[in-house]
Amino acid sequence: MSITQHGHDGHDERPHADTAGSDVVLREGEDSPERFPNPGFGPHRPRRSDVDPAANKRAERQVVALFAISILGTIGFIIAYFAFPLGDSPQTLHRSNLTLGLGLAFALLGIGLAAVHWAKSLMNDHEKAEDRHAQRSSDQTRAEAVQVLKDGVEDSAIGRRGVLKGALVSSLALFPLTIALPLIGEVGEDWNVRKLKHTMWAKNKKLTIDPTGRPIKAADVTVGSVVHVIPEGLDETGAPLDEKAKAVVLLVRLDPRDIKSEQGEGWSYDGIVAFSKICTHVGCPVALYEQQTHHLLCPCHQSTFDVADGAKVVFGPAKRPLPQLPITVDDEGYLVAQSDFHEPIGPSFWERLR
């Protein structure tokens, strides 16, 4: 039946000529429908697990098996954490990262797949629709919502499936260990981020060329030149990979008149400035220097730092300047550090203030 209705804005609303007898309504003079018919839900098709008790039980066993995979993944992560500690060689780093990564992957994948399979094969799959109401529902509606949640818990049958409930609780209870274990005090020194606050740089430590270790005199550095430097004695520490990753520095000599600012008073020497090579975004090595603009570019994500202005960020995702190493010269004219960096190097971590 076709019915003409009067709209709120004074326009006539009438069914389109081609849709007589339907609920599609058009405003006069417009082609876009004002209202569509409600198609409703199609016929419900029961799943095999709904009609076959054997299939239902098989689906439950599959969900339990997936939770078991998560539990084994968490246990594997814990074993790998202690069995394959981080070492000084690329081989030990690779072995540790691989085993920890696989354990974490199976722990997460098992929980995720189990939850999806549980919802699709065991929980109620009848489609439901609810009218939209004001955000603050009536007390009756709120009570009904609580009841729906209770019905959902009942529908999941978790109370009647003891093995399934045990597998769920066990996998969820064990998984946080993959996050908490690396954060536990001094269980593994290599997971202790507090050591990132300090490097080998110290008062009167000479700047040496990377990788030869030859000390540098200020007179050897010309305007516009860039030198990659490491602290003197780095190769004698016994942990060169760890220490070099923190202590690498880029030394640049500018015309002193081009220096706009530096991070500390007297931290440069006659236009020579030294900044950490570790990008403050995600830790990539910053090493591309543009002499005319005095800009340093990180090749990973294009963060750009202005060496002439305290290595402040001028472009890209980095949020902080590169830490500056205070330098001076000793009695023989060699470049030396005045101290360690005054802030942690590299990207953010949970213990740094900024």
TrEMBL record:
<keyword id="KW-0812">Transmembrane</keyword>
<keyword id="KW-1003">Cell membrane</keyword>
<feature type="compositionally biased region" description="Basic and acidic residues">
    <location>
        <begin position="1"/>
        <end position="17"/>
    </location>
</feature>
<dbReference type="Pfam" id="PF00355">
    <property type="entry name" value="Rieske"/>
</dbReference>
<dbReference type="InterPro" id="IPR036922">
    <property type="entry name" value="Rieske_2Fe-2S_sf"/>
</dbReference>
<keyword id="KW-1015">Disulfide bond</keyword>
<keyword id="KW-0408">Iron</keyword>
<feature type="transmembrane region" description="Helical">
    <location>
        <begin position="96"/>
        <end position="119"/>
    </location>
</feature>
<keyword id="KW-1133">Transmembrane helix</keyword>
<dbReference type="InterPro" id="IPR045603">
    <property type="entry name" value="QcrA_N"/>
</dbReference>
<comment type="function">
    <text>Iron-sulfur subunit of the cytochrome bc1 complex, an essential component of the respiratory electron transport chain required for ATP synthesis. The bc1 complex catalyzes the oxidation of menaquinol and the reduction of cytochrome c in the respiratory chain. The bc1 complex operates through a Q-cycle mechanism that couples electron transfer to generation of the proton gradient that drives ATP synthesis.</text>
</comment>
<keyword id="KW-0411">Iron-sulfur</keyword>
<dbReference type="InterPro" id="IPR017941">
    <property type="entry name" value="Rieske_2Fe-2S"/>
</dbReference>
<keyword id="KW-0813">Transport</keyword>
<dbReference type="InterPro" id="IPR005805">
    <property type="entry name" value="Rieske_Fe-S_prot_C"/>
</dbReference>
<dbReference type="Pfam" id="PF19297">
    <property type="entry name" value="QcrA_N"/>
</dbReference>
<protein>
    <recommendedName>
        <fullName>Cytochrome bc1 complex Rieske iron-sulfur subunit</fullName>
    </recommendedName>
</protein>
<keyword id="KW-0001">2Fe-2S</keyword>
<keyword id="KW-0560">Oxidoreductase</keyword>
<keyword id="KW-0472">Membrane</keyword>
<feature type="region of interest" description="Disordered">
    <location>
        <begin position="1"/>
        <end position="54"/>
    </location>
</feature>
<feature type="transmembrane region" description="Helical">
    <location>
        <begin position="63"/>
        <end position="84"/>
    </location>
</feature>
<feature type="transmembrane region" description="Helical">
    <location>
        <begin position="166"/>
        <end position="185"/>
    </location>
</feature>
<feature type="compositionally biased region" description="Basic and acidic residues">
    <location>
        <begin position="25"/>
        <end position="34"/>
    </location>
</feature>
<comment type="similarity">
    <text>Belongs to the Rieske iron-sulfur protein family.</text>
</comment>
<feature type="domain" description="Rieske">
    <location>
        <begin position="246"/>
        <end position="336"/>
    </location>
</feature>
<keyword id="KW-0679">Respiratory chain</keyword>
<dbReference type="InterPro" id="IPR014349">
    <property type="entry name" value="Rieske_Fe-S_prot"/>
</dbReference>
<keyword id="KW-0249">Electron transport</keyword>
<keyword id="KW-0479">Metal-binding</keyword>
